[in-house]
């Protein structure tokens, strides 16, 4: 039987090659690639990241080569490495494809070994170019640009080739080093042209050192990146400055953007300084971030001796920067600034500044170097990868963690390089999630291969998600795992940092008492059994979140106390482990507030409400009126008033913890907070009243009297804060057949019992019932009948008592009696002919006296939230004065709420709308601040603290957009100052 003839490979179809452009078949024919001889070449083309773009570039390159096209075509058929490099680079980079078309002979650079010159050879290439074409900028700079792009082309082809052919992968660090060498050679050439341009014949060239900073200084440069530099001159004269400026201009126009903004005083500072001037600046004025930047400083070009002197003079300052008094707040401010740079809608696409991105790695590594480099010279390295290796070798980071973080960092840098190569533009932004073609191109350019489960696009998506998650996880672990290892040998952890190193690291992370913090960590991770193991896993993330809070020391102590109190509750650690939102929110609350931790100790179930439910945070699932009804219902089950009020305290405690937590987490507006706090106070009063009445009702089941509780002040206005007492008055009415004297006596007994039972000392926030606004104040009877109140107000009411009645509202007890009381006092607070001019004048006199005498000794009148300038009293008295003057004609002023009355004042045009808004903003600002003071300090206070950690915490608790206490205080002073001007106008008119 005859042996079959060997079949030659057949030309694959356009579709099988991955070509989708309509002109693809025509382009193949134009190139002569539609023959059987080109089959292997075509399969190489199909593996290009974008085969269509590669084919289009090849047709343009063929046109540019003209008669020389056949030489390239023949070389491609013979040289598989050339095919791989060329197709990879033109299928990945539109810009380098354009460079090839403009310089078609440059394809020869990709033949053979395509060697990238070392640093010395590069300098010679650029020097030879200058020697051949001279130093006239118009002539030489285009030549140098072509030379620079040729080097990029060679390196990129080697870097990208594994995407097409089985070429060796170039290490990430090698790519960064080559790119830094390119930058050095380009800067050196630009400096030489600048010297020749500025220094005419007979003028000596200045001694000038160019210090590379940032990624160039660390020899880990991107394909497209600003090259940061600092200039050091022997003299800082006009000639030296002109040379530096001309070098920057030439290099920026030709190669890459050259940025000197890292110099002393930034863009406002002198471009060139002498070494002595640099040293003086860094000794006296430099900020922490400037020392952090110097960690990557490297003499690049220019006067080598001067550059080395610069490094020798400044580096000792870098490694003692962590001893500076403002080191921690400046580091925290840097983190906030970085996070604020990224808009929320693109944060997931930002591989540099987004969560789990490159900056997270770089910032963490540099901070650890600064903290421990003072005592360990092995950490004095510039590149991120080398620093991670040194941190791992020194025990400051786990070796596995260092290796994993390095792998994640190099992966993200690889994506950054591919994105920048496409158009040689500076970018760190991934394509949108719905742009599958762009993502598929990126996957192929980044060496992604199908894995049997996902295609290359799916592999890329999974890998990005995995790497971001790993960086986020290790970012926290990087700081805290070695700390835990240093205190946790009993749970099987390897030896970690020395005690001194652990204390330095905790101090740098914001802990003012690092020794105490280590004690707490030891207690947490050395718990027996499962609890200690889970804590060791949880704490790196928890401590990271705590370090972002205003007071991590107090937060860690609170976390330890809660953990010990809930040690037998299995749900507690499980919830923190499985619900990251719960853990993160809890750390923020604990690191901000002294008020909430005490509540959570006795109402721990609220921690579970920190989780997100189907409709949002569970903290918001319960409405205040539902809580109020539940509180009243639960106390009704107890015949003993003591037990009933204990039940009311339990539900109140839970509601206070819920409201305060939601408030601290920015989930509630100040009006909602005040409304919820008022609602729970009213429910407690109603429950206490019902419980005491039940206990004091005779056997016949009929109480001697009806009793109503009238809310006064902020309780009546529905605007209670965390530190507010309940201002009340009691009004009674004898039931049928009961003598009035007996009814009043019984009612007084009930009211006294309510005040006593609620005022009993407790671990909870106090329940103080204040009846001092009643007629005759403390000297008057605690309870009066409706007729007695009416007689008193008709004959004896003082102006201050009329003013106080403006906020009276029935809150508990017999609602009908309460409503009749309100109708009765309307005749006093809103008289038909208006309040007399004498009464108004008396109110003004009392206000002047309050301003002069009531402020506590030592209080700052500018920052006392209640009685200070433009504070709550100023706004409320202004509103009440307008009510006294106009409520008889403007019925909408019949309102006990300050804010709602302000709205009515504006609608009635009693004040200009902008003045109303100034008063409204002052009331809201002061109320937020007053509430925040209680949340932060754990007890009522009205005085804002001075600059420092506590003011920062108040700013955070008050919902300020950051924890910059100084900025918050400036805003408070501005708002209240403007409100005070309105108050003075009203009281003076």
Automatic annotation (TrEMBL):
It is an enzyme of class 2 (transferase). Residues 85-309, 584-822 form the Glutamate-ammonia ligase adenylyltransferase repeated domain. It comes from the Bacteria. Its EC number is 2.7.7.89, 2.7.7.42. GO terms for molecular function: [glutamate-ammonia-ligase] adenylyltransferase activity; [glutamine synthetase]-adenylyl-L-tyrosine phosphorylase activity; ATP binding; magnesium ion binding. Residues 333-479, 847-983 form the PII-uridylyltransferase/Glutamine-synthetase adenylyltransferase domain. Keywords: ATP-binding, Magnesium, Multifunctional enzyme, Nucleotide-binding, Nucleotidyltransferase, Transferase. The keyword Nucleotide-binding applies. It catalyses: [glutamine synthetase]-O(4)-(5'-adenylyl)-L-tyrosine + phosphate = [glutamine synthetase]-L-tyrosine + ADP; [glutamine synthetase]-L-tyrosine + ATP = [glutamine synthetase]-O(4)-(5'-adenylyl)-L-tyrosine + diphosphate. Residues 492-989 are annotated as: Adenylyl transferase. Pfam families: GlnD_UR_UTase (PF08335), GlnE (PF03710). GO terms for cellular component: cytosol. One of its GO terms (biological process) is regulation of glutamine family amino acid metabolic process. Residues 1-483 are annotated as: Adenylyl removase. Its cofactor is Mg(2+). Involved in the regulation of glutamine synthetase GlnA, a key enzyme in the process to assimilate ammonia. When cellular nitrogen levels are high, the C-terminal adenylyl transferase (AT) inactivates GlnA by covalent transfer of an adenylyl group from ATP to specific tyrosine residue of GlnA, thus reducing its activity. Conversely, when nitrogen levels are low, the N-terminal adenylyl removase (AR) activates GlnA by removing the adenylyl group by phosphorolysis, increasing its activity. Belongs to the GlnE family. This is Bifunctional glutamine synthetase adenylyltransferase/adenylyl-removing enzyme. The lineage of its organism: Bacteria, Bacillati, Actinomycetota, Actinomycetes, Mycobacteriales. The gene is glnE.
